[in-house]
Amino acid sequence: MTRAKQDGGLGFRDIQCFNDALLGKLSWRLINNPDGLLARILRGKYCKYNPILEVQAASNCSHGWRSILIGRELVKEHLGWAIGNGESVKIWSDAWLSTSHGAQPMGPAIEQTRDALVKELFQENTCRWSTDKITHLFPELAPQILSIKTSSKGEPDNRIWLKHESGVYSTKTGYQAALKSRTIDAGTGDQPAFQWAKKVWEVNAPLKIKLLIWKALHGGLPVNERLATRLIIPSSGCVRCGEVETITHVFFTCPFAQETWRKIPFKRDILLSGIQHFTEGWSLVQAEISFPPTGLNTGSLAAWVIWSLWITKNYWIFLERTFSEQEVATKAVVDAKEWNAAQPLKSNHLLVKQGREPEQKFEVICQSDAAWKKESLTAGAAWKYTRRRDELNRSTSLIFTFVKSPLVAEGLALRSAMEQAILLDYKQISFESDSKILVTAILEGSHISDLHGILADIRSLAGAFTSVSFHWVPRNSVSSVDVLAKQVLNAFVPNMV
């Protein structure tokens, strides 16, 4: 029941995992804010000789400190690095190769580089990767390393939480990580694939019906076979046909149920005689399409048939009231149509939020965009500067290799545009991009692990302008630079490292 709904549970909170996640939040603050008052007090008392990530619980430490260390273990298990200047990260012992999972170079370390830092893989006196050094030490990891975009301005490396793209720990993601770890430890991590969201929770039916289907899939309905096993009733026979009443029998293999399904207005006949398990039967009927006059979509009518079969069975047992197959089928169709008619209509009106118009005080407007190829991990970047008073129209394009995502490509394009704007001595400038994620991160100061170095450089470069702004605009507003980016990308022939 504590599993997520998409994993077959009901989403109830596991108290132990949630408590560990809350403790992890406190540990995360101590790790990332070591100069805070609480952090200084605890470090002074418990971390005199070892950092917080390595210190062990002393025999005389407080219950509170032991609890913090429990949260630390959760954080430590999924802790990584976002590379900035490479001065804080060890090549062989720290997880720095990925921002989504713990990864570091494997194999015996070369004696000369055993304690080397990531910055030693840079070109001399820069924060740019040295392709020669990387291909010499890690030929197989070269593309992965070169896809990490560092800070050209020397931004320090940053510890990141690998379970979220922002790299920032939250109680929610910590709870999910703790729950997943506990599930794996309990040996229940590898379950048969079943689309719980699509086949149960997204069905267009009331929650009571979804819960009935969920219980049936888990074998949790009080059918006679289960009740007889627990000695609650003397017989396990079906009240309608006398055969052993299992969950599958009630809904699919009982002659009464099969005749009911035949009377449902589906586009084709359903063969239920060979059904061995409720999962198999539900997957079959849920995919059936009803005739258009019913006005019901796929899966909706089947769910109401399941409900009607269960309800009429209980009417027989508790009220001694019987229904024919036709009455059960009719009840399912009528109830489904009534429920659908009572649901609020979804509006088809789409509200498009336009980008904010640049203010008139900016003498130059710069639009940037990027195009990306997943197969070659290359990106074409383009940007142009326009100025109203003298009809300035300057365009530039550039190729970037080893780019892991379109978002990184957009960030590289904007950073390059800012660097060129500084060289051109533009003082008042407005930057426009069609990447809402990128612009939001810049304006709100939020974190994105893959853009750690790029975002830091953009914020640093912004200080070189007298007046600067960043705006999101719709894609059609940057169509000219989009075309230019695609042209330079299509003309590029990549070389392998």
TrEMBL record:
It comes from the Eukaryota. InterPro entries: RNase_H-like_dom_plant (IPR044730), RNaseH-like_sf (IPR012337), RNaseH_domain (IPR002156), RNaseH_sf (IPR036397), RVT-Znf (IPR026960). GO terms for molecular function: nucleic acid binding; RNA-DNA hybrid ribonuclease activity. Residues 368-487 form the RNase H type-1 domain. Residues 170-261 form the Reverse transcriptase zinc-binding domain. Signal peptide: none annotated. Pfam families: RVT_3, zf-RVT. This is Reverse transcriptase zinc-binding domain-containing protein. It comes from Brassica carinata (Ethiopian mustard).
